[in-house]
């Protein structure tokens, strides 16, 4: 077994069924912090802004007494719409980046906006960007990455995601080829990339210098086949159980982690098993088993 000495394992509110700052179907934030620590994780992400306390002093106290540290914040953006959305985008980004910085994090995960509503399935815009929209997406992402680095000292890692315009291998590589490697890195989510037909190991081997962060996730191939056949939006697909507990899904995580270790750089690998909404008693046993599985992989 390879010791994954460069991989720092963590988890996130997502693995506890948390998608929104407030939702009666989600576990309370104190329970999330208690259970993620109990599961054996040391690192967490902030999740949706406002779910965890946004006062850094409060959050530092709450995380420190549970032995937890923060790896990243997360923001949603629609940068392909160009300068018209910059101010609104920046207001959202600044709040998240300031809290992440105050908590000692080094990364900001940037997720593109959905082309169809993740709850209702309503089509919000064309699923294919025009060349002009691609230019806006790449140039505005570079601008965002520059501003976030200069003002908050954080590195932007862009997260390819189902039902967004950065999803498949073709779109991910197009995005990488059109952006400055010094500014823009990738948060490779193994589950989302498999959901969209991509090969995570191949991406790491081909674009290794652009991999700045990992989300560890698996998809259930049988459910995925149904979801694709029925053209089910991402939210309902999650409710069907398309994202599953490792190691029963794809991709196999051992070769992904080995390829990441081979890059020779320190990388966070944050477990994210989408399962909104879920029974509040469901996440903890899964988290314990997942942490144990990752230890068996050397992480």
How are the secondary structure elements laid out?
Blueprint: E1 7-11, H1 29-38, E2 43-45, H2 56-64, E3 69-77, H3 86-102, E4 107-112, H4 131-152, E5 155-158, H5 169-177, E6 185-189, H6 190-195, H7 200-206, E7 211-216, E8 218-219, H8 221-230, H9 234-239, E9 243-244, H10 253-261, E10 267-271, H11 283-296
Parallel strand pairs: 1-2, 1-10, 2-3, 3-4, 4-5, 5-6, 6-7, 7-10
Antiparallel strand pairs: 8-9
Helix pairs in contact: 3-4, 7-10
Provide tags for this entry:
299 residues, alpha/beta, TIM Barrel, eight-stranded parallel β-barrel, two-stranded antiparallel ribbon, 10 strands, 40% helix, 16% strand, Xyl_isomerase-like_sf, lyase, EC 4.2.1.44, Xyl_isomerase-like_TIM-brl
